[in-house]
Amino acid sequence: MNYSPHQQAWLAHSLTLAGKAEDSMTQTIASAKVDMNPHQVEAALFALASPLSSGVILADEVGLGKTIEASLVLAQKWAERRRKLLLVVPATLRKQWSQELEEKFSLPSVIIEAKSFNQTLRQGYANPFDLEVCSGKPAICICSYEFAARKESELARVPWDLAVLDEAHKLRNIYKKDGAKTARKLDTALAGRKKVLLSATPLQNSILELYGLVSVIDPHYFGDLGSFKARYAKQNLEEVELALLRNRLSRVCNRTLRRQVQEEGGISFTRRYSMTEDFRPTANEEKLYQEVSEYLQRDDLLSIKPGARHLVTLVIRKILASSTYAVQGTLETMIQRLERQQPLVEALQDYDNLEDYQDEDAIDDEDLIDPKALQAEIELLKEFKSLAGSVTGNAKAEALMRVLHRAFSKTLELGGARKAVIFTESVRTQTWLAELLAANGYADEIVLLNGSNSDAASKAIYKDWLAEHQGSSRVSGSKTADMKAALVDKFRNDATLMICTEAGAEGINLQFCSLLVNYDLPWNPQRVEQRIGRVHRYGQKHDVVVVNFINKGNRADERVFELLSQKFQLFEGVFGASDEVLGSIESGVDIERRIHDIYQYCRSDEQIEAEFNQLQEQLKDQLEVKVNDTRKSLLEHFDADVVSRLNTRRGKVVSQLSNFQQQLLLLARMALSTNTLEYSEHENGFSWQGQRYNLNWQEADSQDQQFFRLSDGLGANLINKLKSVTLPTVSLPFVYSPHQGQWVDVKNLIGQQGNLRVVKVSVGSSEELREKLLLTTITDCGESIHPETAERLLQMPIVTSDTSPTIVNSDIFEADEASQLQAFMDIVERDNELYYSEEVEKLERWAEDKRVALDIRVKQLDQEIKQARKSARQLATLQEKMAAKRDLKRLERERDTVMLNYHEEKKKIEQEEDRLLEEIETRLAMDTKLETIFEASWTLHESESFA
């Protein structure tokens, strides 16, 4: 079948029209490598609903994919060519976010941290956050909360199109004067920028936390803190006020629950089971631990600068708990570095998450250079190294050998595969464990995954994988991402064990494995949950077994496990059972610091017990998960309503995606099928020049085919090429083809002829661009053809690819085109009226908050004066009466001042309201542009006459 360049251009423009998120989201979904659930699409559309909105809170329960929701919003902004995008996340999640954006949405990102920031400055660039200026390529900027706060002035200089803040409950105490320094700095730096806040627990302890988060998004959403307290923070809030607050929050906060999604059928949750194995260190292991621990506890250390003390001692303790093999290597490197007076931090590279801690602690390399007087300590370190070398057995490794068989039996009993992922925090321990396990029955069944994977086996796996997938969409071009993909594939297809470090496992999904072994257990509960989340996540079909080791020779280790297991409930129960707790704690890093301090400063088991008891008491309010009636009444909606809405959304997404994919296939057919030797179609895709393309990303990945989408590769190339062609006026001899669909309206045009014009109208404001193709089609009899019929006509093949030039009278289109244009402008105007009315209502509520606060203050003062007069009459002495009179006069003066200022304050509120409304009107000002894509004459013939 033949198609003209005009038809190809029409379809290319049609597939890439800018518009409301509701209309244009399908393209983004079709380009994503993820199964989109309806609640995720709902959340993304909620975030994108109004171009005037200052932002939203996405508050789905943990496990429902807020990362996907936010990524969908970012992808939509990227598609709109709004490329100044910022992601602020906990330091431990930076790499995971970067990989998710790349793998699932093909969105480029750059992680900004101290080292890269300073390097960019040294290259002469003024602001490393302005990625397009610094690198020439736009990308999503990712940084940690701590780093963003430290660089608030540079952050503020970038006109961000959108800022996404993950784990945003870190900001919820911003309303407090005595804390939340990081939150305040971020609030200042990102003032006026559109924001999406992600948090499973936007409200934990006080309704004022919601006020805090909403004020970060929009300071004009509620009145000031005093007015919010006066209206909504009362002990017994009236039902009318509660309903009003719920309605106001429903415009800015979207929350879906696991049970609602499960009822809709989107996600089925599995359980996790805990299995523990006790061990007791040998005498030499115990001696090594005690001596190194006492060394780290000394106050007079010269080898560690005070600024780096916490980081260095924490990491050495983690390595010490991992294996004597790791300790030996670390001590050797420390000795070498100290002898050469080099930064001590370089001795800690065995710990694969070092950068996260450096970024959290605001430590640069220059802070870590050690003093010269190190000789005595170097000798001591050599003694430790010698002792570590003398240790022959390893009690925890022997416990691993014992428990693996039992754990595999349990996993198989639960229906899972005989596969286990083993986590360690040390690269040296990882290597040593691989050798040990290979010598004990697991030879050729082991895959290693860490931050670099520079070992020979990993390189060989990577090389074979590249050869196997060369030319397919599996190869991303990023060595880090492709190395991980190769090793995960090897684990899935051939191996029994994958030994991982934390850094290596960031961003990977291992749902095909349902056994996880914590060889080394992190102290940070959020990091433990992220680790387990590699296997226990959406897509896991089996219950998961989590294995932990308990060191019976170390009371602190025992108490850490008890805290994580019993208080945080990390290892047992339904998926996400710990989400309330994990969302409620301010920072897992802070808990990790607290635990480190116990190790560092406690000299006896009694002290350890007392300190852990105190820690649990401090965390009590956060760890005791209770049903929060306020949260339920404000943020959660009736299950039936939510489930019904999600069902409707699923139907829409499936239908729109199916139609869009059919149009994608038609684009390939139009653009490529002229060469029948190189183009052929198959189910869900086509072949072109020896390469198979698939519209279904899962099939493309599993069958080594290219994923055909508009965001990159062949699809993007075709779109760019077809939209850039200048098209002459021609004659298009269409042939009715029932293969395109039994379209009676088109069939009725057989034997007729006429003229058509395709015009793209763009209606743009500073906030939103709306585009539409005006298809004006007139028969020679002067009859106007409906635009839908014209679209179908343009999908018919033509007699030959050699279209002949012609002349068309453009005047015949004007009336129809004006009618279509007016209809489109009416829709845009109606939408803008809705956006405007929502903002007007918001500002009216804000002004009402401020006025209500004034009224309440006057009433409070009147009540205080009344009470003061009553109390004064009951006083016994003259001195007391005189003092009471002075207080009464002060209250009356304050009341009089408030009343004098009352009308002036109300006038200021009205003036501010007017100013903000004028600002909104300016943002909605529309600029209309018309671009003729092509004009043509046409005829429609019956297919049989050309058979």
Task: Give an overview in words.
By secondary structure, the protein is α/β, with parallel strands linked by helices. The strands form four sheets. The protein has a seven-stranded parallel β-sheet with strand order 3-4-2-5-6-1-7, sandwiched between helices. Helices cover 53% and strands 13% of the residues. Strand 16 and strand 17 form a beta hairpin. The longest helix is centred in the C-terminal third of the chain and has 60 residues, at 814-873. It has four domains: 31-264, Rossmann fold (3-Layer(aba) Sandwich), CATH 3.40.50; 270-445 and 496-634, Rossmann fold (3-Layer(aba) Sandwich); 638-719, no CATH class; 832-928. Helix 15 runs antiparallel to helix 19 (375-390) and helix 28 (588-601) packs antiparallel against helix 29. Residues 851-922 form a coiled coil.
Question: Secondary structure elements and their pairing?
Answer:
Layout: H1 5-15, H2 21-31, H3 38-48, E1 55-58, H4 66-79, E2 85-89, H5 94-105, E3 109-111, H6 114-122, H7 131-135, E4 140-144, H8 145-150, H9 152-156, E5 162-165, H10 181-189, E6 195-198, H11 208-217, H12 225-232, H13 239-250, E7 253-254, H14 258-264, E8 271-279, H15 283-297, H16 309-322, H17 324-339, H18 354-361, H19 375-390, H20 395-413, E9 420-423, H21 427-442, E10 446-449, H22 456-469, H23 479-493, E11 497-500, H24 502-505, E12 515-518, H25 525-532, E13 544-551, H26 555-567, E14 573-574, H27 579-584, H28 588-601, H29 605-618, H30 620-623, H31 629-635, H32 639-672, E15 679-682, E16 685-688, E17 691-694, H33 697-702, E18 706-707, H34 713-723, E19 730-736, H35 744-747, E20 753-764, E21 769-779, E22 784-785, H36 787-794, E23 804-805, H37 814-873, H38 878-923, E24 927-942
Helix pairs in contact: 1-32, 1-34, 2-4, 2-32, 3-4, 3-32, 4-5, 12-37, 14-32, 15-16, 15-19, 16-17, 17-19, 22-23, 26-29, 28-29, 37-38
